[in-house]
Amino acid sequence: MTRKRGGKVTSVDVARHVGVSQSAVSRAFAPGPKHRGVSPETRARILAAADELGYRPNAMARSLVGQRSRIIAVLFSYLDNPFYAIALEKLCLALQAEGYHALVVMMPDTIEGTERTVSDLLGYQVDGIITASVELPSRLCLYCRDEGIPVVMFNRVQDDPTLASVTTDNVAGGRLAARKLVEDGHTRIALLAGWERASTNRDREFGFRAELSVHDAPLHARAVGHFHLGHTRTAISELAHLDAPPDAVFVANDYMALEALSALRHVHGVDVPGEMAVIGFDDVPRAALPEFDLTTVRQPLERMVENAVRVLVRSLDAPGDDAEHLALMPRLIARGSTRNRT
Predict the structure, then answer these.
(1) b vs e for 185-213, b when ≥16 Cβ sit within 10 Å of the residue's Cβ?
(2) I need a surface site. Which of 64, 181, 239, 241 has the fewest CB within 10 A?
(3) What confidence category does residue 276 fall into, taking pLDDT thresholds of 50, 70 and 90?
(4) Residues 6+ apart with CB under 8 A from 211
(5) In this structure, what are the phi and psi dihedrals at residue 181, rounded to the nearest 5 degrees?
(6) Average pLDDT rounded to a whole number, residues 11-17
(7) Is the pTM here over 0.90, yes or no?
(8) 183 φ, ψ to 5°?
């Protein structure tokens, strides 16, 4: 039998060609472990016949039967930071491996726009939502939960314990950065903060200040870069032109740290690390390039993605279970933007 002429090939045609039931064809195309019940040999014959006949399963029809769309909304507010661009790729691939597809949505920067976008998402009948680089209002997250749509916060947390989250332990990461600078012998230590409403910035700063206090090391100066390159250049200029400039600065993420490092060296003529050490947070690929050689706190991105997808799938399969909250340990990666002065 060759490709059907004058009409659409159906699962019935494939079943007749192979000599199996229509339900066997449906199970053979089911995602993940759902094709169990069809032997590997039979499934191979079904897939080969489908390819020969030109059959393509109707994903929408399958979702209506299974009461699932197999679509997960992945929300971002920006992708300028390469950490999130890499995270997006890994999240999409991990979801596909579980039989889901990502609907990527760039979120507006207003509460009204966010509410409207989330409302539109519900119309697409998404099965779940992963939020990254997005500060969703708690009421929106709770509304989604009440509608039976699980929400997993990626690299973000909210105070509500019913909202699942997968993050790095940002407090511990801030502590690692402070400990490194103190142990290297720095005495005028500054902080270049990010967007102050972000939980990542809040927790990294909290850990950084807490560790400085343990060592009786005061925070010498603080500036704010808002996770924005232009603001970062202004902030690092402010620090570089203080009467007593810092001899070290912790920058709340690599996106800003790489810009700060470049401005210090090429605009302000500061010797890094001779006159001022720089530590970032994330460990994006560019941080390891020789022209930057940035000391940074590494987020375990692969494990974060793996666990975010696992938590979401678990929430779909067991909707009544308690929300998980994972904070994975970061690592300090020492490179050439810092050096021991003692």
Answers:
(1) ebebbbbbbbbeebbbbbbbbebbbebbe
(2) 241
(3) very high
(4) 174, 175, 176, 177, 178, 179, 182
(5) -70, -40
(6) 87
(7) no
(8) -65, -25
